[in-house]
Amino acid sequence: MENWRKYEKTYFMPPEPCYDWVKKDSIDKAPIWCSVDLRDGNQALIEPMSLDEKLEFFQLLVDVGFKMIEVGFPAASETEYQFLRTLIEQNMIPDDVTIQVLTQAREHIIRKTFDAVKGAPHAIIHVYNSTSVAQREQVFKKDKEQVKQIAIDGAKLLKELAEETDGNFTFQYSPESFQGTEVDYALEVCNAVLEIWQPTADNKAIINLPTTVENAMPHVFASQVEYFNKHLRDRENVILSLHPHNDRGSGVSDAELGILAGADKIEGTLFGNGERTGNVDIITLAMNMFSQGVNPGLDFSNMSDICEVYERVTRMKVSPRQPYAGDLVFTAFSGSHQDAIAKGMTWREEHDCQTWTVPYLPIDPQDVGRRYDSDVIRINSQSGKGGVNYILKQSFGISLPEKMREEVGYLVKDVSDKAHEELTPDNVYHIFEDHYINAKPIFSVDECHFKQEDGIVAEATIHHNGSNRKITGVGNGRLDAVSNAIKHYFDIEFELAFYEEHSLTKGSSSRAVAYVGVISNKKRYWGVGVDADIIKASIEALVVAVNKLDSVQRSQTCKDERLLDITNYIYANYKEVTLDDLAEKFFLSKPYLSKYIKEKSGMTFGDILKEIRMKKARAMLKSSSATVESIAESVGYQNVEHFNRTFKKLYNITPVQYRNKP
User: How many other β-carbons are positioned within 10 Å of the β-carbon of residue 630?
Assistant: First the structure.
């Protein structure tokens, strides 16, 4: 690490001491919050959000309580332009929410931005240009006056176009790369912009200070902010905004000290998503205030739902140690920690406490939708039953799903208790293997082929009662299709409730392990599969889990052989098959065939056909973007209204609602 010698400080201190913020020890009220998830966070994604995903995320931000939402850089891409137009034209912006759009201080981009924002009920036009020494010298090759002129020209054009464009506009200016800019020069540029805009009490302007690349300690940034707070012209008519990034890992500290130094507004993202190391994490920032008795003005009481939407639409992951939101942030693995928490909870009950002071828990987990029994007091490898997971993971590369650990732990603990001896890692693995990998006493699936046909169709060979039979199923994925085939074969019902997978080993001979949990009669059954092919591993895990079902263990015979052939034929020809076709195929009269199907299955031919078509439709609704009309036709319904009515009658939900359901 001798290369440290090539680095030096690239920030600038204010030209005068600015340390009044040090005299404050806490934040007494929340700032104005502005989410930039749909712009700064979106452009940081490997795969940016689609229009539908952005619309869903926008609604999430509204539900959380954001009153300012930066919706994008409409001049940058057609998707962002269309997103903004959709919000405006479909009246999706609540009256109390202001959208914000970003534009460089370049004429053609500013003009396109105003075209995009035309008709908005209220919009902030956020214009910026970089003012840092590095950008001036290396990128623009312009001196201070020339760079300042870029900002002035942009400010003038904003004012001119705002008067010509339908809408209600507020102006915001950012000296990009602020921390790499001489503080007094950055102030000079911002004051020049404000001189043009002439903000008033009824029409305030916003000056935004971004740590575009965080390069200083938080107290330096606070001093820079305080200098602006003291010397910005028309300060009473200006909203002083901060946009902290997190390159040094100090984004939250920058924001908190910046608020103490006089900032009015904070721009950031949920979970700190953003380019490089991200933006300031607004959830952490807001919850920090919440934990000290300050109303943040944002609602994170249903944190798990927020995490679910965020992970699904951004394809990012919330770290299990993410403050306030991670799966493990309230969990105590240590026995001493668990004991202290338990005693603290008892103290609260005994003393009827109105304030929160429980050891190891900075806030009440219930305030963000978590539970004491599943999120706080849990057993892990260091305390009791959780040790089983530790042994399997460390010695064999098997990391049990959280929901499976307790069952496996009790199983191994029971063996240990009855044997009155310590179990070695090999003992633990063999117990696990016997109960969750090799346990297939009733049936197995020895071969399976798939094809894409308006969903996934599985054609499997099941070995049961000493013979092999072909079974067919359809689903919105391979595992779902095999699951439906098994249900069809045994004439049983269960819910495929849990699936997880991970790599077991590395290298060319690497194998994968899959975990499957099914629910039948409100009871969960687990299976595990290990194979070089993750699909095969998944099927093996499913088979083990289903073998444990009481309904399967009681079933020593499968569905009538001829009926199975008949229903397989219906699966293969569901679009156009008729009772006449079946009668001809199986050399039976229609009346006899109709009666035979009813007696053997308890369902009419029409009911079976309807069920198969609806399963196909459900798979297509989840796996494709085809229209409902197209899907209806694909599964054999020429009349889409008839299809809609049939679907809703069967599932108590419309096809569109089913598609949009998480």
Answer: 14
